[in-house]
Amino acid sequence: MMNPWLPEKHKILDIIKETDMESTFVVEYDHPSIQHGQFFQLSLPKIGEAPISVSSFDDHCVCFTIRRVGKLTNVIFDLQPGDDLFIRGPYGKGFPLDEFKGKHIIVIAGGTGVSPVRSTLHHYLSHPEECKDVYAIAGFRDAEHVLFTKDLEAFESADHFHTTWTLDRGEKEGFKQGFAMNFVKDIPIKEWNDNDYAVIIVGPPIMMSTTAKECMNQGVKEENIYVSFERKMSCALGKCGHCKINETYVCLEGPVFPYTKAKTLMD
What we know:
Elements: E1 8-17, E2 22-28, E3 39-44, E4 48-53, E5 56-57, E6 61-67, H1 71-76, E7 84-91, H2 97-100, E8 103-110, H3 114-126, E9 131-140, H4 149-157, E10 161-167, E11 176-177, E12 197-202, H5 205-217, E13 225-228, E14 244-245, E15 248-249, H6 250-253, E16 256-258, H7 259-262
Parallel strand pairs: 8-9, 8-12, 9-10, 10-11, 12-13
Antiparallel strand pairs: 1-2, 1-7, 2-6, 3-4, 3-7, 5-6, 13-16, 14-15
């Protein structure tokens, strides 16, 4: 059994530049036990460690889309394909895709919140038989902060996907202006039965809160909503308490929560 406290050395296979501040690191990994929505702890000796969501994975690699924002990420961005990165995980609970089978899937993400839902969207892209259809809304700050351009194009071209991409400000071909939550009203939720759909919302806490409320204004039942927290997980094993809200350890019970639980945790 792997020691959950001990980082393991894995080779970087590729680095894909997404924006001026974000890149996707493709890391060699052959333990096919990842759930969509889980996270890993990434580290470099003598530098530090940080929790990073999984943005994609297969049987041979795992991808992390990282923003250059601090001491550890600055050094990670100096690495090249062939260099080693230390990782441990995966940790936490992912999205309950088994419970979503045969339903309409609504995914609403803001900014870097697109990263934790990317693998879920790819799953439904590859397995259309597992859902009725997919409504995907992704909002970005402006044209310079758009992530996963090729992925967005692939989702747009899928017959069972209905996509809306938005910018908070500025213009870009194929994108609408406004916040992601403004376009929830365009989804035909009121035509569906309560047990026929599931909603995933990921982004900053204020975005998740306001978007969940807008969904409910449009007829969504709160028990059909799931969110994912990006919080300061440190040990990832429920020992340090850094991610604790009230009596809940986000690293253990999350990062994915049903909204019925999450609404009491948004601080």
